[in-house]
Amino acid sequence: MLLSTYRTLSTVTRLERRLTRRSLISTQSNNQGIPPPLAGIRVLDLTRVLAGPSCTMLLADMGADVIKVEEVTRGDDTRSWLPPSAPVSPNSPEESSHLPPESAYFLAVNRNKRSITVNFKDPAGLKVMQRLVRSSDVLVENFIAGKLSGMGLGWEDCKILNPRLVYASITGYGQTGPFREAAGYDVIIEAEAGLMHITGEPDRPPSKVGVAVTDLMTGLYAHGAILAGLRSVQHTGKGVWIDCNLFETQLAGLANIASNYLIAGKEASRHGTAHPSIVPYQVFPCKDGFLMIGAGNDKQFRLLAERILEKPELADDVRFANNATRVENREALVDIITQVLQRHERDYWIKRFTGLGVPFGPINNIQQSFAHPQVGARQATVEVDHPRAGKVRMVAPPVTYNGKRMPVRRPPPWLSQHTEEVMLELGYSQNEIAELRARKII
Q1: N or C: which terminal CB in the chain sees fewer CB atoms within 10 Å?
Q2: pLDDT in tens, 314-360
Q3: Helical axes 430-438 vs 123-134, angle rounded to 10°
Q4: Is residue 284 within 8 Å of residue 268, measured between CB atoms?
Q5: Residue 319's CB: how many other CB atoms inside 10 A?
Q6: Side-chain half-sphere of 404: how many Cα atoms within 13 Å?
């Protein structure tokens, strides 16, 4: 009887859940998009430069109220990394007239945030920070390990103020180990954690990647960990200390290269744009540009030889009959393909490749990348109104939910733009705010 009743109730419950999910999916499909999932979450952002700010921007994109705490006179280091910068609008706020132009670097990773300035080395500034900690759900910092603990804002200090706090530390090497107090710089970690060793041409020195990819990967890992931390707090009611660092992120980013070494003891080497195990799979020069070609199997190679290069004899040549022999005779095949491609311009070859099923892509510069038809079709950029810079074009959040992106609610803030607003929210009076300003605490 009890088992039968349980099965009946269980069936009803599952049915209700299915109906609820269907109703939710239907509503979301009709409305397009989803409500900002982190609306109501406050994030206290004590990060600078790229790894930390990229992480907190992703949280802000999902609706979190991100309060970026900056140094009182200079702010985030990247504010001074100019040119390039956005032009200063003649209609910019008077109170921001002493500031330099908004740097393109800063604008790239600080949308949807509020900016306040606090000198928390001063006891009065520390009290401001303590109020912020009490009212926040998440704190993200990228100081050297142990630095904030010496200032009264370490994990042990903050969890007393707010036992449900998710506290995320982003460092170069982590909170433990012999390098714990070393500063973390993307290019140094690229060198030290293997990435630079495998990047570049085989007969040239190691090269860094063209963008600070280790910083960006770390920001992504930290952002995911913070979401997990918030979920944990929902279940346990207890805060979480997240230890995320560039070094381990880059080791994880070695992916199959790391696995090759750990499993088989195979050391890696540089191959430029080529693949160590597939030929042809690299960049080739045309008469006026470059193409990336990736003929990853015999069928694709035959198409390349017969339909595109118009050299059918290559597909039947015993040296190139299968991928193993093509790898063995890499240099000869690459030379033949290069000679053919250099007879015509890049656009000629793009037309010949298109629609045949052989993977390829032109090497576009940045202007060409943003002129790509997919950018317009997907609305991959967005224009925002900045109070100091006027219209600013930015890369849009790259994820859609039921076909709609999260909105850019706020342009990147100018330095200290929201200090008074936030201080009032914390319960400070106008007189107290004026006094703290006069003392350069905020």
Answers
A1: N
A2: 999 999 999 999 999 999 999 999 999 999 999 999 999 999 999 99
A3: 130
A4: no
A5: 11
A6: 13
